[in-house]
């Protein structure tokens, strides 16, 4: 049986009233709920990556790349397919660029590790050509790190006697090219008899004594961050011998060879100059030290 027109009209009026009553509640809920955050451009795989500055104005701006292809890409320990695999990266993942050699790009994996990948597998968002000649790839030593050193070697007192020397030191990498370092060393000198003045028959008798010396040095790194890191060094200090303390100057050069991110072999040649003795026997000493040891970076 069909409803009368008046009944249909009453039903439509009730539905309209219910809809109008529910409308404010729906609007209130929409206002109470926070809007979903818009997708960030950095989260989109198609969005460009922007360069970010490193911690020094003398260092080139850091570059970024994103891996291309499907699945995972292989990262190697060196710039070539013959090097060992160190990690894999998913396609679309973004990495900071450390260095570039030929068609291979070195990527920063974390604070300790890097990996090499072929340029064909990367989408470049910056010009990477300048990285070919980048002076500081920052692979090993870096500003803000400490180094602990231990060594042994040979010490020539006034170039007339040779003895074993042992020592150590601690340094701080102030800048990429500059390190400050303090050191302490000991040796036992056996100095032979020596004629000081033949006219009056003045001579120094043969003697043995302990020599303790410490220094504060400034090291200039010529190739900071490289696996082979040569440096020049110079500083001031004191030498303690025969109960006397004499101020000294030293100059030298050396090199570090890193076996890992933290451990390196270090060798250096250093010249010490100071005066010793008393009265007519006082004279300037020109001493030489050659040392070989290890350095721990932390």
Shape: elongated
> What is the number of helical segments per DSSP (H or I, 4+ residues)?
1
Give average pLDDT, whole number.
78
Helix-strand pattern = HEEEEEEEEEEEEEEEEE
* Distance between the amino and carboxyl termini: 92 Å
Report the biggest beta sheet as strand number plus sense, adding barrel if it closes: 8 strands, antiparallel, barrel
Radius of gyration: 36 Å
Got a strand count?
17
Short key terms for the protein model shown above:
298 residues, mainly beta, 5-stranded antiparallel beta sheet, 1 helix
Structure description:
- The structure is a single chain.
- With 298 residues, the chain is mainly beta.
- The chain contains one helix and 17 strands.
- The chain has one helix at 5-32, and strands at 63-67, 72-76, 85-90, 94-101, 104-108, 114-118, 122-124, 146-157, 161-173, 178-191, 194-197, 202-204, 207-221, 228-241, 244-258, 263-276, 283-297.
- Strands 8-9-10-13-14-15-16-17 form an eight-stranded antiparallel β-barrel. It has a five-stranded antiparallel β-sheet with strand order 6-5-4-1-7, with no helix packed on it. A two-stranded antiparallel sheet has the order 2-3.
- It is elongated and about 140 Å long.
- Residues 25-60 have low confidence and may be disordered.
In short:
The protein is mainly β and 298 residues long. Helices cover 9% and strands 52% of the residues.
Topology:
Elements: H1 5-32, E1 63-67, E2 72-76, E3 85-90, E4 94-101, E5 104-108, E6 114-118, E7 122-124, E8 146-157, E9 161-173, E10 178-191, E11 194-197, E12 202-204, E13 207-221, E14 228-241, E15 244-258, E16 263-276, E17 283-297
Antiparallel strand pairs: 1-4, 1-7, 2-3, 4-5, 5-6, 8-9, 8-17, 9-10, 10-13, 11-12, 13-14, 14-15, 15-16, 16-17
């Amino acid at each position: 049986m069909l409803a009368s027109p008046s009944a249909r009209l009453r039903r439509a009026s009730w539905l309209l009233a219910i809809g109008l009553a529910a409308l404010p509640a729906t609007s209130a809920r929409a206002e109470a709920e926070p809007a979903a955050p818009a997708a960030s451009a950095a989260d989109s795989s198609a969005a460009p990556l922007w360069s970010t500055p490193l911690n020094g104005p003398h260092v080139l701006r850091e570059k970024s790349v994103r891996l291309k292809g499907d699945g995972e890409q292989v990262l190697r320990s060196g710039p070539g397919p013959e090097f060992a695999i160190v990690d894999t990266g998913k396609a679309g993942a973004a990495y900071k660029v450390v260095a570039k050699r030929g068609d291979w790009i070195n990527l920063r994996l974390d604070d300790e590790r890097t990996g090499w990948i072929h340029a064909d597998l990367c989408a470049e968002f910056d010009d990477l050509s300048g990285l070919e000649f980048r002076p500081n790839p920052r692979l090993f030593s870096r500003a803000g790190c400490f180094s602990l050193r231990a060594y042994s070697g040979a010490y020539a007192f006034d170039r007339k006697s040779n003895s074993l020397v042992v020592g150590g030191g601690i340094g701080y990498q102030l800048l990429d090219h500059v390190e400050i370092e303090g050191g302490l060393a000991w040796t036992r000198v056996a100095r032979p008899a020596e004629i000081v003045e033949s006219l009056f028959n003045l001579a120094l008798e043969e003697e043995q004594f302990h020599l303790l010396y410490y220094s504060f040095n400034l090291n200039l790194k010529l190739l900071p961050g490289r696996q082979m890191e040569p440096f020049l060094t110079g500083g001031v200090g004191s030498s303690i011998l025969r109960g006397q303390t004499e101020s000294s100057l030293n100059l030298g050069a050396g090199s570090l060879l890193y076996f890992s991110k933290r451990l390196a072999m270090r060798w250096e040649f250093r010249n010490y100059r100071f005066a010793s003795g008393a009265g007519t026997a006082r004279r300037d000493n020109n001493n030489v030290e050659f040392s070989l040891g290890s350095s721990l970076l932390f």
